[in-house]
## 1
Amino acid sequence: MQTIPKQSESLWTKEEFQAQLYAQKSRYHDLHPFHRRMNEGLLTPTEVKLWAANRYYYQKSIPLKDAAILSNCPERTIRREWIGRIIDHDGRKDTEGGIEAWLRLGEAVGLSRTELVEERYVLPGVRYAVDAYINFCRTQPYLIAIASSLTELFGPGAIKTRLAALEQYYPWIDTAGLEYFRVRLQQAPRDANYALNLVLDRCQTCSSQERAVEALIFKCDLLWSQLDAIERGETRPMYD
Ligand code: AHQ
């Protein structure tokens, strides 16, 4: 686990703590070479397909990690709020949800639902990064697990740039398939704002403040390592 400079024994003020969290923006995966090439219109269709197929594994795992957070959270008022994230992804009888929307994204870039659902192109590095996220949220105190979701403070800006680039430079992708990101632009700010206020309000010791920042660094590294694997592509001989 990455460590941050130990703070002096005194607690950070809310403003100092928030600044420490926002400072991790420099680790966010929008800066990764793969996302930079995506945003410059330089990815091949094969690279876009591999990215969509691997991000599907991340998306389908989000409800599992959020359910893990719920299972560790004794407070009904927080669970009532947090459960909305599971519904946003899994959907319910009247809304299809984000996982279904990601399947449509996969079809829009030329993958079949079967290829996605069977996780046919999921790379070891992606699988292990995502599984590490689920395990982190199962084993850490719920507040520290919630802190790891604060990468979404940086998500909307990245998604806005990406959405514009996909629409501009990848005309072969049916823009209806990009609906996932349009919906995310509404959901992510709301989710990040709730999580930020909870972390700022509830982390009332030096240790919990430092652990919250370290959780955010862990998650930034997890997103980064996913893209390292996707950029490297398939290297296993049996897939030659
Ligand atoms: O589509 C994304 C999503 O549903 C989530 C949930 C959230 C979390 O709880 O960790 N993080 C997240 C993210 C999504 N999309 C990523 C992207 O760049 O498209 C960003 C990612 C995040 O910032 O953690």
Note: The longest helix spans residues 45-71.
## 2
Amino acid sequence: MLEQIKQTAEYLQNRIKGEMPKLGIIMGTGLGTLSDLIEDKQIIPYSEIPNFPVSTVEGHSGNLIVGNLAGKRVIGMQGRFHYYEGYDMKQVTFPVRVMKALGVETLFVSNASGGMNKEFKVGDVMVITDHINFFPENPLRGKNYNELGTRFPAMTEAYSKKLVALADSIASEKGMRLMHGVYIGVTGPTFETPAEYECFRTMGADAVGMSTVPEVIVANHAGMTVFGISVITDLGGKEITEAPSHEEVQKAAVKAQPTVLALVHEMVARL
Ligand code: HPA
């Protein structure tokens, strides 16, 4: 794995023009248009990057985007690798390892999720304050490479409190409705049964989705500062009778996009 990370990082170092970014952004479902705000960009298809898996899901294009966002150098992932697609945890989190090797110190992640918190509405934007790993495995299982991080990393502040506070202050300035919550990561690809949504709510989660947790675990292992945002694209629970669909998730994510883009853009400007 170390050899692969090194090889991929070297390839990108040679290919990326200009200064290496210190900020990485994983642009989740429907939020790929953040890349439109990145200026002077270089688009590097995953298919051209050695050791990179290739994204397969509808609505996710697979490119690394390197450029300037709000005056900062950023490296963005347009499309991510999901566990439900069949990738293993090492593949899902490989790009985060590579970002770290390139010098990325701060990671922004975004996703779409189903809301269980009774105060949530479809289209709400939730800052992730913490997560529950409900995947059947942990991306750090197996041999630990001390060069990458410690054997038993703390997850006490998996999501930076400072960045949550920054998001809050921007939201209040802009009069933006910004929710807080715990994200529970599950494998999918099924959406949850009503009983499962209820179960996750009882466990202390506010939203459920099929990504993010593996990448955030690896980012913490690597000592990165993390900020996460979740768009509530559907609601779940025993009183919710509408069935969620991929199309509906995409539609709701696209609708919430301007809010998320404005927030992320302003946060990056103030980093
Ligand atoms: N469950 C799991 N993943 C999701 C959901 C959901 O309801 N909505 C968007 N991603």
Note: The chain has one domain: 2-270.
